[in-house]
Amino acid sequence: MSVSEPRRVLGAGDAALLGVGSMLGAGVFTVFGPAAASAGTWLLAAVLLAGAAAFMNATSTAQLAAQYPSAGGAFVYGRERLGPWAGFVAGWGFVTGKTASCAAMALVIAESLRAAGLVPDGWTRVAAAAAVIGVALLNLRGVTKTAGVTRVLVGLVLAGLGAVLLAAWLRGEPEPARALPAGPLPVGGVLQAAGLMFFAFAGYARIATLAAEVREPRRTIPRAVVTALGFVVALYAVLAATLLAVLGPSRLAGAAAPLALLAGAGAADGPTTGALPVWIGLLGAVSAAGALLGLMAGLSRTGHAMAEAGELPRWIAPLDPRTGVPARAELVFTGLIVAAVLLGDLRGVIGFSSFGVLVYYLVANLAAWTQSGADRIYPRWMQAAGAVCCAALAVSLPWEAVLGGAAVAAVGVGVRLARLRAARTAA
């Protein structure tokens, strides 16, 4: 095999596991509170809407990845089906949005460790930067190492979440009536909550961006994507219903650490005591670390594909001859993520990340719409519904996220226009 080609070493189980690991990250520990503040008792509707949008997007990316089993995800699909500009918009939305996502995951790791008493106050950003560097070093060893570590992390997180849910129901405190929608449907609030919840789902695309390293991609990728997403949608729905039943919408909306409250950690605005804060903190750190592993792996692969196409500097494109990893791209994005960690804010990067990723999936749905014949796996109405959902959720996000995302997109378009103009002049 040429050193310029990644190695196909992932089966359906490992691919689905990477998707689950990417989704079970910071979102499950951070998003339910802000989403409940927007949707109230209609939180479960927002979770299901975000899950439905994610499912439409997942089927589109799976269908496209089966035809184009190469690194790069919707950047490649947009170029092949819609032209270079569409591919660039998708790729730019992905690398900017996912850089923010990685910074958010790293900050959650550090904040979780600080809450557990393992990181001193004032050192959270340093700890977050150290987490990014550690994950990068692991990813540089190869995707099989990434999958192996993700398997362990996902197992720990699922065991912890299962224990939290079991403890909540065994205490006999849940009031199921609290989880039932009350009052008229707040359409705007549910849409905004779904847009925020999308941050907690946006991990299944890691399977598509790693398509060049998956065995039998036409069969494996659709199975892995649907399996991973279906599992996480069900888990999030159970968590949302339990949080509402135990805490109620008002208490949940004001909770900075809803899972700690769910486990019986104390009042919504009071400190926790005993071993539980340490346990919840470690669980949050482990969960975010698993997501960060998958996110950084997918980010470097998309950067590699964009660099090979000349949309990013070509010197970051080469693959390591021993591991098949785009090492230079991994190092470049590691530096950008560390900078975002040192300068950014956790609340702001969640909305910004959702905007960029929704733009990415909008292009993916439009690209899948153009497929036909043997390349078509799912009906066209699913791609149309996915595109509409992406657009609606993107514009429903908090206005700061919409303006920030639009500004960064405009910068990318401006840089590309300048580069094309310079190339024409030189020719």
UniProtKB/TrEMBL annotation:
Coiled coil: none annotated. Pfam families: AA_permease_2 (PF13520). It is a multi-pass membrane protein. Keywords: Cell membrane, Membrane, Transmembrane, Transmembrane helix. One of its GO terms (molecular function) is transmembrane transporter activity. The keyword Membrane applies. It is found in: Cell membrane. One of its GO terms (cellular component) is plasma membrane. The keyword Cell membrane applies. Its main location: membrane. The chain crosses the membrane at residues 12-36, 42-65, 85-110, 122-140, 152-170, 190-212, 224-247, 278-299, 349-370, 377-395. InterPro entries: AA/rel_permease1, APC_superfamily. PANTHER family: AMINO ACID TRANSPORTER-RELATED, MEMBRANE PROTEIN. This is APA family basic amino acid/polyamine antiporter.
